[in-house]
Amino acid sequence: MKNNSSKKNFKSGFVSIIGRPNVGKSTLMNSLVGEKIAIMSDKPQTTRNQIRAIYNDDEMQIVFMDTPGIQKPQNRLGDYMLKVSHSSMRDTDVILFVVDDSKSIGKKDSDIIETLKTNKSKKILAINKIDKLSKEELMVLINMYSKIGIFDEIVPVSALKGTNNDTLIKVLAKYMEAGPLYFPVDMITDQPEKVLVSEIIREKLLMYTDQEIPHGIAVDIEAMKKRKDKDIIDISAVIYCERESHKKIIIGSQGRKIKGIGKAAREELEMILGSKIFLELWVKVKENWRDRENYIRSFGYEDK
């Protein structure tokens, strides 16, 4: 793809993807840019930081910002995540509000809508998971959200299947303005490599552990170095949890679970990084780290 940012009609802008937990925001962002940028899980609050993914074509650049699901905080980490989401809504050209196939507007969605009413950015509603809806059910939802009167456009999508991705990109393009190329055309995210590695490991932890445990897990990359004269990257990572009982569950009987987590993470990292990976995982306990400011910051959850 050529660098067309000097073209007279080149457009660019920022799109903040918001919504309550578990509606498919990260899946939608990954689908729109055609690459896995944000980790995905069926467990709520998977996304903790703002994650940027960059869409490029010959006419424009869209910088998508995936944000933590908006809900009432339960701890200091939750406070930070809510702050990230609200900050993203202030610093954007377009807000892409994602809802799912729920047949009615619940309290969490209603609270977000109330916040959006005072926001001056353009607002696009994406109704996700339409593969689970009949045409009649979808029309009911579209009419229901249309009556609220704050959305510039409503686009039904299926993030999992990529349904209407092109339509959504065309709609967003209408609200991009003449602007520069914010990132190089071959760049798909501004995440540092270590952050990407820690997030992939955390994704596998989400897959392998029960509902209660994932919320209290953090991953810290202690060392990451490519070997001299060999196509091998050595990675040493520490998995932090909040209880000894959680540590035992993560490790599993005879270390089987941690081995499975490590194997799954290593295989995906080898595909992403294009090198052989030697991955060493450790599990440590930091009690109530989500309510301790120093730990929250040390794990990378801090205001930029």
Please describe what this structure looks like.
Pfam families: KH_2, MMR_HSR1. Residues 66-69 are annotated as: G3. The longest helix has 18 residues, at 256-273. Helix 6 packs antiparallel against helix 8. This protein has helices at residues 25-33, 76-90, 107-116, 135-146, 165-173, 193-208, 244-251, 256-273, 293-298, and strands at 11-18, 51-56, 60-66, 94-99, 122-127, 153-156, 177-178, 218-226, 232-241, 276-285. 36% of the residues are buried. It contains 9 helices and 10 strands. The chain folds into 2 domains: 11-178, 3-Layer(aba) Sandwich (Rossmann fold), CATH 3.40.50; 193-298, K homology (KH) domain (GMP Synthetase, Chain A, domain 3, 2-Layer Sandwich), CATH 3.30.300.20. It is 34% helix and 22% strand. A hairpin with a 5-residue loop joins strand 8 and strand 9 (232-241). The two termini are 31 Å apart. By secondary structure, the protein is an alpha/beta fold. The chain is globular, with a radius of gyration of 20 Å. The model has no long low-confidence stretch (mean pLDDT 84). The strands form 2 sheets. Strands 1, 2, 3, 4, 5, 6 and 7 form a 7-stranded mixed β-sheet that branches. A 3-stranded mixed β-sheet has the order 8-9-10.
